[in-house]
Amino acid sequence: MADEINTLEDLAEVAGVAATPEVELTPREPVRDALGRAYATGKRKDAVARVWIKPGSGKVTVNGKPQNEYFARPVLQMILAQPFSITDRVDQFDVVATVKGGGLSGQAGAVKHGVSKALQLYEPSLRGALKAAGFLTRDSRVVERKKYGKAKARKSFQFSKR
Q1: Helix/strand/coil (H/E/C) assignment for every residue in 9-37
Q2: How far, in Å, CA of 105 to CA of 141, rounded?
């Protein structure tokens, strides 16, 4: 009996079950609103960004201002461009984002997270590249709270022996 079981099909026949389960894998559908836009919420530290993307010329507007005016530092502009460069979609989508909370660095990360999520909703085939780059995962690191009896979250006051 043991030498008769050589393959998965043989094992399944002995166990009385199907060798290959009947699982239907349906491809993901694009999620767009009536205006042809994809919407997503991005978060980073204390910043929350609401992001809409639609096909266009690559214009990025953050809180009603152009990207290079709102995020003046080139590093922050580069962070916003990462999802498009990874997916080879540079200057193909217009982005409108409103962002609240946190500082500029956290806001840039929130917009990046929102753009990545909206891109994968607009074109589900891009999900693999965005996920491999780690852009769909929310960075859960936040500032640690201050504890009583401490100067900051972990720093103690200066010790004096005398």
Answers
A1: HHHHHHHCCCCCCCCCCCCCCCCCCCCCC
A2: 13
Q: How many residues does this entry show for the chain?
A: 162
Task: Report the distance separating Cα 42 and Cα 104, nearest Å.
Answer: 14
CB 60, CB 95: distance < 8 Å: yes
Torsion angles phi and psi, residue 19, rounded to 5: -70, -40
Helices (H) then strands (E): counts for the chain: 5, 5
Beta partners for 65?
62
Could you tell me the mean pLDDT of each successive run of 10 residues in the chain, 162 residues long?
Answer: 64 66 72 91 96 94 95 95 93 95 95 95 92 93 94 95 88
CB-CB contact of 46 with 105 (8 Å): no
SS3 5: coil
- pTM for the predicted model, two decimal places: 0.80
Token representation of residue 45: 């530290």
